Amino acid sequence: MTKTSGSDNVLCGRLLLIDHDAACARQTSAELTEALLVAPQITHAGTGREAADHLRKLRYDVIICELASLGDLAANVEDAMSRLVRLANGALILAVADSGSVSAALGAMRAGAHDYLAKPAGGSTLAGRLAELAQRHGRPRSLGVEVTPEPEISDYAGFVGASSAMQFLYEQIGRVAASAAPVFITGESGTGKDVCAEALHSRGPRAGNRFVAINCAAIPRDLMESELFGVVRGAFTGAHEDRKGAAELADGGTLFLDEVGELDLSLQSKLLRFLQSGCLSRVGETAARKVDVRVICATNRNPMQMIADRQFREDLFYRLHVLPIHLPPLRQRPSDIMLLTRHFLARYAQEEHKSFSDVTPDAAQRLTAADWPGNVRQLQNLVRRLVVMFDGGQITTDMIEAADIESRVSTPAPVEAPRCEKRTVLPMWQQEQRIIEEAIATFGGNISMAAAALEISPSTIYRKRQSWSELAAAG
Known about the structure:
By secondary structure, the protein is an alpha/beta fold. Helices cover 45% and strands 15% of the residues.
């Protein structure tokens, strides 16, 4: 391996390498030293407790953590990583685990790890990922690297994106697709949950059989059971013939339940029985039919909050939540926005028989800086509208302004504030404290579940509690 020339971005400072395998740690240290222009001061810790001791004595810029080495810190990976994050004092944390440890990787990310890599990961791969993390999290140049990066996937099974968040997603899909276990996909509207479900099917052993999707939010509740499990002739008015449901149609293949949280509670109970037994009964019959399907479900809502609100059965959630996949919102991967824009621009220009050359720098900056509450779907709609409304050439900010209907609709006209009695407004940190403490109380003191409901990491709650204690002591 040859070091890359250049002096703009180098890695220096302190790096803590946590790995119970001393030989593997020595190899990783040597490869990192070889890959980086300026080698960091690398400290090796063989256990989680040893790492904690190092973190109490010194401040580190980067932590590379082999997850199996944290077993002495806590009973599970998520709690161990939470403890590590509290001691890390803002260091970048890159988790490393066996390629099959999907749940461990997700637990580490939920607890505050900045990114995850599957083993084995060479020095150039580690250095490249650290460079991207440093750039993404706004760290100074001394935390960057300049190496020859590993080839990145920019187009995968219907997804478009080359950011580290998408690379991690592609790795997950590749690993999870081969399994027969249920998959639970979460993500905001427009992030591509249906694309993810189809990718899991097409890359798995059931690809030759049917993929049947059913949107649980789009079908009236009184028809949902027959749509899902089928109906026999005469079961109710309008049932003129026997008809298979989605679960039976997917026999041998994949059943995708989109917006599964919208199912009626009584139907959730029947779905749970189906998952447990693999048998179903059509509406109006007593005989059970055995089917073999892989179930993938998705929701854009917070499942923990639905459970707390008694809108979703907890036992059904844990039956479905075997292999979780979370799709990142577009605002968390801004480096993919122009890649997606050019992809959609080329597609729709070809469909409309028009010629668009590119996007002006000002327009690109505007697109990249947008929040995109509708995520990829909103961007896709905007680009299609641009292609239809204009004849060609470069996309400009004026063109975007004319076509960006959603932003204008979502920005309400200013109205005069109603006059009301003067009230005391609490400081932001006190309001935030009240919200977080109420969430913790709702889940009986379980910080991990409260964090999931608030869509923040447990490490954030621990850090905020510590800062509140300091504020209270200072006051």
